[in-house]
């Protein structure tokens, strides 16, 4: 299996940074929009090329722990699919879940970290706290993975090994949802196996979750994420805003500027900014939502990315497509 993606298409500029009327920087990337019937409606760049979805794969990982027999619902299931902000309610529920399944925080193999949310990180440090595994944004996923291992009598010390029964189940879930085989296998920032897909496959995966039977693992994950988006992200995050504002939408970002969204009518989108520039993500997401005819004030809220000079707004990050 090749672990080096081959990109034969020069990606277009999806966003630019404009300061005082001058285009200062540009962010290239690829994007795909799917029509309700699953066909490709718009393709920019090379959405057939493999990318690492990073945390946009978390819904599939959460479906795998359900298929493994772990019984999670509501906020607990949403947290299993989360890149949480490290707010107090996130950390509290991770601790509760660990206790409920007889687990110790030391068993988590995600790295110690500060809260993902910048404001929360400042408050956390001001309170005298230090980096912790529970605080790391993937701790809900890791807790659910450990709990699934405990429920099945599988080894917990090697739960991140790509050959572990749980990770083989994750692979099945990813490939089934995307409708394609993974094209590369790596290690995510949290230490979990990371499975590469095309952006088209990622959009198909999210589409399959919103269209899934409500009683299926995929349908249950989608329902929990949409009902409890603050546990998927946080109170100051675009995924939360979008899932709160638009009924039935499923939204999840990934590190290195990856985003996937699906709607209950079967339309979906996925994109990646080539340079991993997270500052371009919101502008590109807002424009993609416009192209899918999402008519809600949340689109403007997501797309408003002001650029300051001193304390004055002097420009913006804006989409170019």
What does this structure look like?
It is a single chain. The chain is an alpha+beta fold and 321 residues long. Helix content is 37%, strand content 20%. It contains twelve helices and twelve strands. The chain has helices at residues 58-67, 74-80, 88-100, 118-126, 139-152, 165-178, 199-210, 217-227, 229-232, 238-245, 281-291, 297-303, and strands at residues 13-19, 22-34, 40-44, 50-51, 185-187, 193-195, 197-198, 250-254, 258-262, 268-273, 306-309, 312-319. The longest helix has 14 residues, at 139-152.
* Secondary structural class: alpha+beta
Topology order in helix (H) and strand (E) letters: EEEEHHHHHHEEEHHHHEEEHHEE
- The stretches of 5 or more residues where confidence is low (pLDDT under 50) are none
Largest sheet: 8 strands, antiparallel
Share of residues in strands: 15-25%
Percent helix:
25-40%
Q: How confident overall, as mean pLDDT?
A: 97
Distance between the termini: 34 Å
- Tally of contiguous helical segments: 12
Give me the count of strands: 12
- Alpha carbon gyration radius: 19 Å
The protein's oligomeric status is single chain
Overall form: globular
Observed structural traits:
12 helices, eight-stranded antiparallel β-sheet, globular, 20% strand, 321 residues, 12 strands, alpha+beta, two-stranded antiparallel sheet
Short overview:
Helix content is 37%, strand content 20%. With 321 residues, the protein is of the alpha+beta class.
List the helices and strands and how they pair.
Elements: E1 13-19, E2 22-34, E3 40-44, E4 50-51, H1 58-67, H2 74-80, H3 88-100, H4 118-126, H5 139-152, H6 165-178, E5 185-187, E6 193-195, E7 197-198, H7 199-210, H8 217-227, H9 229-232, H10 238-245, E8 250-254, E9 258-262, E10 268-273, H11 281-291, H12 297-303, E11 306-309, E12 312-319
Antiparallel strand pairs: 1-2, 1-12, 2-3, 2-10, 4-7, 5-6, 8-9, 9-10, 11-12
């Amino acid at each position: 299996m090749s672990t080096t993606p081959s990109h034969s298409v020069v990606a277009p500029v999806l966003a630019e940074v404009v300061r005082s009327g001058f285009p200062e920087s540009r962010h290239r990337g690829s994007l795909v929009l799917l029509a309700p019937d699953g066909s490709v409606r718009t393709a920019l760049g090379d959405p057939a090329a493999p990318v690492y979805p990073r945390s946009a794969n978390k819904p599939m990982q959460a479906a795998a722990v359900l298929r493994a027999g772990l019984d999670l619902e509501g906020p607990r299931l949403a947290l299993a699919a989360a890149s949480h902000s490290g707010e107090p309610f996130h950390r509290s529920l991770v601790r509760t879940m660990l206790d409920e399944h007889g687990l110790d925080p030391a068993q988590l193999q995600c790295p110690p970290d500060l809260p993902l949310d910048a404001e929360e990180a400042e408050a956390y440090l001001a309170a005298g706290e230090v980096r912790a595994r529970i605080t790391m944004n993937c701790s809900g996923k890791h807790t659910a993975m450990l709990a699934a291992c405990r429920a099945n009598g599988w080894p917990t010390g090697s739960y991140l090994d790509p050959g572990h029964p749980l990770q083989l189940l994750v692979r099945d879930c990813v490939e089934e949802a995307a409708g394609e085989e993974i094209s590369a296998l790596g290690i995510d920032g949290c230490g979990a196996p990371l499975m590469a897909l095309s952006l088209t496959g990622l959009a198909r995966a999210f589409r399959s979750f919103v269209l899934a039977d409500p009683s299926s693992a995929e349908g249950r994950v989608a329902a929990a994420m949409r009902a409890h988006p603050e546990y998927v992200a946080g109170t100051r995050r675009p995924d939360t805003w979008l899932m709160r504002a638009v009924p039935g939408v499923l939204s999840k970002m990934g590190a290195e500027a990856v985003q996937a969204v699906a709607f209950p009518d079967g339309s979906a989108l996925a994109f990646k900014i080539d340079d991993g520039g997270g500052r371009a993500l919101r502008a590109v997401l807002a424009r993609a939502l416009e192209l899918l005819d999402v008519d809600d004030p949340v689109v403007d809220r997501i797309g408003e990315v002001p650029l300051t000079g001193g304390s004055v707004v002097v420009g913006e990050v804006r989409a170019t497509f």
